[in-house]
Amino acid sequence: MKKIAILGSTGSIGTSALKVIEKHRDRFRVVGLAAGKNLELLRKQMEAFQPEIVSVATREASEVLQKLCSSNGIQVCHGSQGLIEVATYPKAELVISALVGALGLLPTYRAIQAGKNLALANKEPLVMAGGLIMKEVAERGVSLLPIDSEHSALFQCLLNCKKEEVRRVILTASGGPFLDLPMERFGQITVKEAIQHPNWQMGRKISVDSATLMNKGLEVIEAYWLFGFPIEKIDIVIHPQSVVHCLLELNDGSLLAHLGTPDMQIPIQYALSFPERLNSPIPRLPLTEMGPLEFRPPDKERFPCLGLACRALREGGTMPTVLSAANEVAVASFLVGEVQFLAIPSIIEETMEQHQCTPLSSIKQALEVNQWAMERAKALINSKYKNR
Ligand SMILES: NC(=O)c1ccc[n+]([C@@H]2O[C@H](COP(=O)([O-])OP(=O)(O)OC[C@H]3O[C@@H](n4cnc5c(N)ncnc54)[C@H](OP(=O)(O)O)[C@@H]3O)[C@@H](O)[C@H]2O)c1
User: How confident is the model over 115-143, as pLDDT tens digits?
Assistant: First the structure.
């Protein structure tokens, strides 16, 4: 029985992870859950899975939760320390890292330091401090398995060849809801349109990241750190059907591909059960009814976030941290109607231009740079981009 703690249990990945665990109760047991504000859902999850420790965003929320589920012996904590308590809970063997944004960096890092194996969905910590995280993973001898569907697919393809035989890694991108929208219409994009992903049901931030293609840029950085391929070997191809999750081009021109129904329960389950492959009730790909699969190059002019992410990775050091932080702030501002969709790449680019890039040597430094970039991006929004 694998004992699991979930950071972000009430989110899109967290709830999918619990569906997987529900179907395999003989294999997995939940010992810890951490959520933000959705107390009603967390309470239901606590009833269903009986964790030993839970955490919520604030002290007030933890007091409400304690009243809701009085005297059942569950340890209730809160805030950033609460996330760390769940991430390092002694009985947890595997931690599912599914918080969103920079918030996940410290608890994810502390989980590794505490010797936990990781199933990683929260990609921003890898973007912010991938070198430090991978070094800690190696030194502690823990396993880090990706949940992101493209990286799970890449991990699986790589089991079938040697890394030196790979000429090109091809990450596929759906292209998001604005794949064919003319540039002149980008100024009128609404929040509702931006969070309507054609193939995946996801949280609000990653949905906007998919619409700007920043998500794919973050995934290039994620692939760089997870698998150690140089940026020149990582390519992006737009594949609107989201059926092929990645391709590996080998030295002899052969392509290895991973295909599957676009449902996050599949890569989540694989990350939990690896090296085993368990049954899944997710509908099979209806191959003969699917229609054609398309592949096209990305349009870097309409989607400049892709280029910004590659530039940040090339510059290295603290620049990817700045990219991630500025993006997080710009997306949050867009989601509350403060800035236009079109302003997102400009805010990120200007924040990057104001940053003096230095080597990244500690998690503390990554958090400080993240804070600096968030404040810079907020200042730019207030002075230049708000409600224009
Ligand atoms: N969704 C996908 O299909 C998908 C696919 C690949 C990778 N990812 C990555 O996985 C991560 C999670 O994505 P998601 O779509 O699942 O996000 P989401 O639906 O927005 O979920 C975020 C989770 O974080 C919790 N949270 C937010 N603020 C918090 C705080 N201050 N303290 C404690 N918990 C807090 C939320 O709790 P409350 O809701 O209770 O406030 C929720 O449980 C992201 O990094 C994303 O890029 C997602």
Answer: 999 999 999 999 999 999 999 999 999 99
Residue 29 three-state SS:
strand
Residues 357, 316 contacting (CB under 8 angstroms): yes
pLDDT in tens, 222-280: 999 999 999 999 999 999 999 999 999 999 999 999 999 999 999 999 999 999 999 99
Between CA 339 and CA 381 the distance in angstroms is 8
* Model pLDDT, residue 70: 65
* 223 to 1, 142, 155, 181: CA distances (angstroms): 30, 18, 10, 28
Q: Which residues are 55's β-sheet partners?
A: 34, 77
Neighbours of 34 (CB within 10 A): 32
Q: Ligand 1: which of 6, 13, 86 to mutate, most ligand atoms within 8 Å of CB?
A: 13
Which residue out of 55, 202, 328 has the highest number of ligand 1 atoms within 8 Å of its CB and is therefore the one to mutate? 202
Cα–Cα distance list, 31 to 106, 142, 250 (Å) = 20, 19, 42
Q: Provide, rounded to the nearest whole percent, the portion of the chain with pLDDT above 90.
A: 95
For residue 9, the CA-to-ligand 1 centroid distance in Å is: 8
In this structure, are residues 347 and 381 in contact, taking their beta carbons and an 8 Å threshold? yes
DSSP bridge pairs for 172: 237
Q: Ligand 1: list residues with CB < 6 Å.
A: 8-14, 34-38, 57, 98-100, 103, 121-124, 148, 200, 202-204, 206, 264
For residues 358-380, give the mean pLDDT: 98
d(CA 56, CA 326): 25
> What pLDDT does 71 receive?
59
Q: Would you state the pLDDT for residue 68?
A: 76
DSSP letters of 143-168? -EEE-SHHHHHHHHHHTTS-GGGEEE
13 CA → ligand 1 middle, Å: 7
Q: How far is the CA of 203 from the centre of ligand 1 (A)?
A: 6
